Amino acid sequence: MVNYPTIESCIGGTPLVRLQRMPGNTSNTVLAKLEGNNPAGSVKDRPALNMIQAAESRGEIQPGDTLIEATSGNTGIALAMAAAIKGYKLKLIMPSHMSEERKLAMAAYGAELIEVSQEEGMEGARDLALSMQAQGLGRVLDQFGNPDNPAAHFQGTGPEIWDQTAGTITHFVASMGTTGTIMGCSRFFKSVNPKIQIIGLQPADGASIPGIRRWPEAYLPSIYKPDTVDHIYDIDQNEAEVTMRRMAKEEGIFCGVSSGGVMAGALRLSREVENAVIVAIVCDRGDRYLSTGVFAG
Q1: Of 200, 206, 253, 254, which one has the greatest count of Cβ atoms within 10 A?
Q2: How many CB atoms lie within 10 A of CB 266?
Q3: 44-140 — its CATH code?
Q4: Active site members
Q5: How far apart are CA 34 and CA 31, in angstroms?
Q6: Is 178 annotated as a binding residue?
Q7: Helix 45-57 with 74-86: angle, nearest 10 deg
Q8: Which NCBIfam families match (predicted)?
Q9: CA trace torsion 285, 286, 291, 294 (10° rounding)
Q10: For residue 297, what pLDDT is reported?
């Protein structure tokens, strides 16, 4: 009998590709980890499935239960997919100004979407999720404080990149939202080679880039450990959007705004170093941002 894979076994193992034009004349190799190739279209597929599987293994949840999560988009879509795979009900809370594609994708997987205002933002969404849990309406997985989030990257993303670069990676660049990706990968890379530099991306003052946050102190994700990030770049809104459009037109890589920010950071880094192998996380695909008009610039 053929042992066919299930959809959850297709999470991870994403391509790592070399940028051919945008880095220009350089001694560096700039590589993009294409996380949009995951089944639900983003890097968040990894922690979404891991948070559910780990909670199941500890006996904290079981199929049929209701899960709750605050999200700006990608985690919500990934959790909606994972909940559909595993047999859970899911309530997602997100700011109302997020793109229609993301809202529709969550609903397509069967999740219930609850919106908060743009002014309340992700902080308000997180507060409402905890309030609903306190009312007994479900269990919050809490991507911002759940160690199973970075564990997915310590166990999966980091080792994949290490193998794909044959251990030659010198710099790792990732956006900072929940910080799960950068925390898990940093812990892995520092364990195999402490000299690998970890660069985080946050939005510049006034920038609004989906998936990248500059959290108020009270809402800083508890999984975040500042001493594991070597450098932080502030990314301007226009810089992220211009780089995102260039990625599509010059490299054939169709990605979202936060990925544009990450690649802008990787290219900035490439202008500062020599003979480096730079790996940047392209966390999702551009098709979930088309309705915002961001590709029309």
Answers
A1: 200
A2: 29
A3: 3.40.50.1100
A4: 44, 258
A5: 9
A6: yes
A7: 40
A8: cysKM, cysM, PRK11761.1
A9: 150
A10: 67
E strands, the chain, in order: 16-18, 29-34, 66-70, 89-95, 112-116, 139-140, 171-175, 197-203, 231-235, 277-282
Torsion of CA 158, 179, 22, 239, to 10 degrees: 180
In the predicted structure, residue 98 carries a pLDDT above the cut 80: no
179 annotated as belonging to a binding site for a ligand:
yes
- Starting at the edge strand that comes first in sequence, how are the strands of the sheet with 231-235 ordered? 16-18, 29-34, 277-282, 171-175, 197-203, 231-235
pLDDT mean over 136-162: 97
148 close to 69: Cβ distance less than 8 angstroms: no
Residue 26 annotated as lining a ligand binding site = no
181 among annotated binding-site residues:
yes
How is residue 223 annotated by DSSP? T
pTM of the full predicted structure? 0.94
| Domain(s) of CATH 3.40.50.1100: residues in the chain | 7-38+156-289, 44-140
